[in-house]
Amino acid sequence: MKEIRMYLCSHIWKSFIRNERWRRNLITKILYLIMGFYFVMLFLTLGFNFSSSIAEEGREAAGRFYEWIIWYLLGDYLIRCILQPFPSLEIIPYLRFRIRRKKLANSVIARTLFNLFNILPLFIILPFAARVTLPHEGIVAASLFTGGCILLIILNNMLALVTGMLIRIKPVNWLIPAGIAVSAALLYRMEVPVSDFSRTLGFSLTEGRLIAFIIPLGLIALVVSLMYRLLHQFLRVDHGNARPAFKHAGKAFSGRFARLGDTGRYMSLETAMLARNRRSRNTMLMVPFFILYAIVYYLFHDEETGRFTDMIFTTMFMGLGAMSYGQLLFSWESTYFDGIMARKQNFLNYLKAKYYLQVLITLLLYFPVAALVMISGRMSIFLVTALMLFLAGPNTCLAMVLATYNDGKVDLNAGTFMNYQGIKGSQFIMTFLFVMIPMAIFKLTGLVVGETGSTIVIASLGIIFILSHEWWLRRLVAGSFSKRRYRLMEGYRKLDA
Amino acid sequence: MIRITNLVKRYQGRTVLSIDNLEIQDGEIFGLVGNNGAGKTTLLRLMLDLIRADKGVVTSDEHPVASSEKWKDYTASFLDESFLINFLTPEEFFTFIAEEYSLGREEKSTRLESFSEFFNGEILGKQKKYIRDFSRGNRQKIGIASALLTGPRVLILDEPFNGLDPSSQILLKRMLADFNTEHGTMMIISSHDLNHITEICTRIAIIEKGVIIRDIKNDGNAMTELASYFSVRNEVKGRR
């Protein structure tokens, strides 16, 4: 049995190290490395700076930190429910072997511990224990605090996974996290002293009160036993079995886009793809969060940030939705791309469908962002509109051309969190250019014609590209696609790209 | 007519397919047999312009498939699951294909009705399931039906009998033969099953290591020739 455990562990390691994502070109590997290093340093610096500021203020400030523990856990739980992947699918190849289900269940549970949601909080907890708890209350208290927090993180991990499993069994179980979110809002609204309880919890951990450890441990044991029972049911090849399909799209496939004819049919196909597959759906579900962030940025962020920063954020709020979809424009279809290419189709209409959808997403984000900008009075509505036109014009053109350089396959049913499958160097470049091109044009033309003039230049460029979309779709996008189509199809056929 | 001239495909310097000359006539049912890795699927993909040839051309009715799209108007194919849009229901998928080929609603329904025995009440109707949630055999049926639905002049199928139950295999053979008689459709079918191939094909080619080594007219004795070729090959291998 020990050997089996070793095999499972070594297979986890091999599946990680032999993943196609490491077979990138050198530039992409370097970009990955730089980004990874940047984020580790960023979080470490944040953790240490934050802890240093608390350390100067002493025990009372530590108490204020503890007040956030339960709120953090609630938020963490809700985000995990949406984004945290469940690794049970990886275990399916082992089901045919003579391995006890309990071992497989253990392996699944062990795999869940190695995810970013469990690691990120350590960037705050460890510096806090070292800089605040250790000097004031000694090594035992620091160790107890760290251990207690890790227990709470594991508990959250297990709770989110059980919720995820229940949701897979019956989608109506989405009511569980929804109910918890509503309850949290009510607790906050009714001023129930959750923060006081959280503060007590924090102090109880550092003081080593048994009850603060026994309850999470007991809950973990309870949740794990529930997971075993569910896994026993889940660990079958048919565990992800058919959910009833959405209602039939009507007699004509184009449905609500019927007016657009052939293009409408392709738009319907794209929207069905976005809505009915896990990865694309989760990616698009992130879009409303940009608006939430925009609300915070425009209405609750009082600091003077300057025109340039405001423009960068406004471009991002309006453009990130279309970019999330556009960066994998053709890769989304990688699992059925051979069929698309072997059949009769009007390629220009196919491209138009993708273009119109990106414009639609940008427009949908433009209206709330424009309203928020007007309420906050931070920018001129003309500039916001000019930026939107630029996003719908030159930026979308750029995104589509760069998408023809992406031959990464996308598994539509994989999770979204920390999933970079299909994202290649060209997409990193796109993210950078997406924001920087309009800014650079605005700044440079501003030097010559002033702010109003550069707003007009930005808007004019947008309008020119929007009006000439058929031309550049045919000449630039279709042209680039045609040259690279074999390479794209080859990439999409790779099993694990 | 499909004409292949000096066609070569290489992967990492290794030649996986090399066909000097091959012509497939209209109305012919052309079978392609060979062992695993012989190059059957590569040849079919080249015929459908899904991979780039390193040398040579494939023309369909004089249209070079790599530089023209006209052949797509009358060609239908099903090679593997990458030809299915698996997040659609079968009805949606068939509607999508029918609209792509400008089939009217009536025409689509009539053609789908002709598959009712083949579907065995498991594909269309009450159950609204996505294609990805069907069994492998039923996904295979959906793929084959989606190709036949368009009423093609050229039909290309890769291992169409795989995953089908015995009744469906027999039914498919009958359907293909009837379709050929009715529409005069050229069919190019690859398979490992010598019985199926010899039963329906008018001409059979053996492909080995990317080269067509025999081109047999099926006048009733093809099975003997195929069986003798593959058994001799195995004996030689066994002696080694």
Structure description:
The complex is a heterodimer of chains A (497) and B (240). Chain A is built from 19 helices and no strands. Chain A is mainly α. Chain A is globular, with a radius of gyration of 25 Å. Chain B is an alpha/beta fold and 240 residues long. Chain B has 2 domains: 1-74 and 154-240, Rossmann fold (3-Layer(aba) Sandwich), CATH 3.40.50; 81-151, no CATH class. In chain B, 37% of the residues lie in helices and 25% in strands. Chain B has 8 helices and 10 strands. The longest helix of chain B has 18 residues, at 166-183. The N and C termini of chain B lie far apart (42 Å). At the A-B interface, helix 11, helix 15 and helix 19 of A face strand 6 and helix 2 of B.
Report a brief summary of the structure:
The complex is a heterodimer of chains A (497) and B (240). Chain A has 497 residues and is mainly α.
Strand segment tally of chain A: 0
Given the structure, what is the number of helices of chain B?
A: 8
Helix content of chain B: 25-40%
Strand content of chain A: under 5%
Would you tell me the structural class of the helices and strands of chain A?
mainly alpha
Q: How big is the Rg of chain B?
A: 18 Å
| Order of strands across the main sheet of chain B | 6-7-8-3-9-10
Outline the fold blueprint.
The complex is a heterodimer of chains A (497) and B (240).
Chain A: H1 2-17, H2 26-57, H3 59-66, H4 69-83, H5 101-113, H6 116-119, H7 122-169, H8 175-189, H9 194-207, H10 210-234, H11 261-276, H12 278-285, H13 287-300, H14 307-326, H15 337-342, H16 347-376, H17 381-403, H18 425-467, H19 469-493
Helix pairs in contact in A: 2-7, 3-9, 4-7, 4-8, 5-10, 7-9, 7-10, 11-12, 11-16, 13-14, 13-16, 14-16, 14-17, 14-18, 16-17, 16-19, 17-18, 17-19
Chain B: E1 2-11, E2 14-24, E3 29-33, H1 40-47, E4 55-60, E5 63-64, E6 75-78, H2 90-100, H3 105-113, H4 116-119, H5 136-149, E7 154-158, H6 166-183, E8 186-190, H7 194-200, E9 203-208, E10 211-217, H8 222-239
Parallel strand pairs in B: 3-8, 3-9, 6-7, 7-8
Antiparallel strand pairs in B: 1-2, 1-4, 4-5, 9-10
